[in-house]
Amino acid sequence: MGVGLSLSWRRIPERYTLLGTKCDNCKINYFPTRKICPKCRRKGSVKDVRFSGKGKIYSYTLVTSPPTGFELEAPYILAIVELVEGPKLTTQIVDTKLEEVKIGMPVEMAFRKIQEEGEEGLIHYGFKFKKVRRMTSGI
Amino acid sequence: MRRVAIVGGGMSRFGELWSRGFRDLIIEAGTKAVEDANLHGDEIDALYSGTMAAGRFVNQEHVAALIADFMGLNPIAATRVEAACASGSVALRQGYMAVASGMHDVVVVGGVEKMTDVSVSDAAIALGGAGDQEWELFMGATFPALYALMAKRHMYEYGTTEEQMAQVAVKNHANAAKNPYAHFQKEITLEDVMKSKIIASPLKIFDCSPITDGAAALILMPLDKAKKHTDSAVEIIASAQASDAIALHSRDSLTELKATKIAAKKAFEMAKLKPKDIDVAEVHDCFTIAELMAIEDLGFFKKGEGGKATQEGKTALNSEISINTSGGLKGCGHPVGATGVKQAVEIMWQLRGAAKGRQVEDPEIGLTHNVGGSGATCCVHIFKRA
Q1: For residue B131, what are the CA distances in angstroms to B122, B136, B139, B369, B371?
Q2: CB contact under 8 A, B141 and A78
Q3: Is B382 in a helix, a strand, or coil?
Q4: Residue B128 and residue A60: Cβ atoms within 8 Å?
Q5: Nearest one of B270, B280, B297 to B375, comparing CA atoms
Q6: In what order do the strands lie in the sheet with A28-30?
């Protein structure tokens, strides 16, 4: 898709660590970050907040006709995940079979490669989400 | 505010028009509209043109000046309007406000998109600009995928079925087959839709509107002048627009477009009408699920009952309410910047009784509903036989 180096760099805190915004006036969380609370605007007191990476599936689809840059990944599960802190985000679901995916299913953040710009271009990393699994081995 | 009327309109054929360029299409539509209005070019004093992504599709920006130049309309004020797939209706609204305010007397409103000069994948990138590039498209979303997320949630919350969505495509292809301007000229069956290739589950290729070239144009003037000019004027009795979050995930609900509900409420208040007063409507069916949500959000059917109503044939030609007589975006095609203007041209023809082969019986009131992206812009217009 070819986005610029500096654009990608500016987004690292949000894409790598789920950095968002909390409005202390409205007590509402937002992802990605916002400079102005859309609800109370200038009355708001917005500050950075790091989300836990826990959430549940709000809706999902299996993308079989991928956009440029995602050809090798198709088919892949794309979802809207609702974080436990409230905000929703668009993300891929990985390490999870399609048959397992259900609306309401608990998921957690995984750090993954999102896309690369050809053989010599930038590699973009960020969050994807996966099914929460209980440990079954005796650790 | 002055009352505003449409006194002429026209459109190019919609389709994959390999032999025709951006300029050819809009000049054809514009010339047809001017001739239909029985005007001389000297009488026009402003131009508004809806175009979403000419820079991506044909490497050309500054297209309003280009259109004025090639239509021979210099030196009038020429303004491009962009609101993704709602560019056309937002251009119409700008033209409406210019005439209503008294700033301009005779305005030409155009809408055009030439989409097939680039590959399908490049067209998809251009259309992706209607969403949130950094937080939706970057993650691997496509426009079919965004509407699939709405469809999946609508199925979850209301029990809507894939067959109900497919019925929208069947109905709109049936209407398109009666419209000589439509991209698709063939009827399809429920089985054709259900067996077609999956793009983003549950949406299949026949749930999606196509990539289309085309243009449409309208001539607006004050109603009192219009009546001296023509006996087939159509009055614009409401024009309303609303905005919502650019990213689908930032909205409270995935099963309604809040911008549609707000724009519709404002439009019905302005027209002093109710949804049941509408005889014919062109709604934004970029995907079949979008038509189901639109007929619910516009108030024609209760939330969650759009699929059932469609399955029962209540939205077919000359039924309870005739929805998308042109074939809609699905059947007539979706040259993104042109769509909002084309919808108004279809309603103009319907109200004049000139929609040959697909004419609604004696309609008095028509409505258009045009959406940008996944719902961040919505524009609703209501029209009445003058």
Answers
A1: 15, 7, 12, 19, 12
A2: yes
A3: strand
A4: no
A5: B297
A6: A28-30, A19-23, A46-50
User: Tokens 């001389």 — which residue?
Assistant: B40
Residues B81 and B228 in one domain: yes
If asked whether residues B48 and B168 sit together in one domain, one would say: no
Amino acid B347: pLDDT: 98
Is B111 a residue whose pLDDT tops 50? yes
List the one residue out of B374, B151, B144 whose CA is nearest residue B245: B374
Chain A residues 13-32 within an 8 A CB cutoff of chain B: 30, 32
Within a domain: residue B369?
Answer: yes
Q: For the whole model, what pTM was predicted?
A: 0.97
Minimum CA–CA partner of B147 in chain A: A61
CATH number of the structural domain spanning residue B87: 3.40.47.10
| Reported ipTM | 0.96
Sign of the CA dihedral running B31, B33, B37, B41: negative
Q: In angstroms, how far is the first alpha carbon of chain B from the final one?
A: 17
Nearest to A60 among B152, B198, B250 (CB): B152
Same domain, B163 and B62: no
DSSP-assigned beta bridge partners for residue B6: B220, B234
A33-56 residue pLDDT tens: 999 999 999 877 899 999 999 999
Tell me: pLDDT of B169 over 90: yes
Question: In chain B, what residues touch A79 (CB-CB under 8 Å)?
Answer: 149
Which candidate from B144, B149, B200 shows the least CB-CB separation from A80? B149
A44 domain residue, yes or no: yes
Q: Kindly report the length of chain A.
A: 139
Is the residue at A21 inside a domain? yes
- Reported as a single tens digit per residue, the pLDDT across B59-104 is 999 999 999 999 999 999 999 999 999 999 999 999 999 999 999 9
Would the pLDDT of B310 be above 80?
yes
Q: Tell me, yes or no, whether B369 and B249 share the same domain.
A: yes
Q: Is B125 inside any structural domain?
A: no
The amino acid sitting at B338 is A
Q: Where do we find the tokens 């036989």?
A: B385
Alpha carbon of residue B228 to chain centroid: 29
d(CA B257, CA A65): 25
Q: A137 pLDDT exceeds 80?
A: no
For residue A34, the chain B residues in CB contact (below 8 A) are none
Average pLDDT over residues A82-96: 98
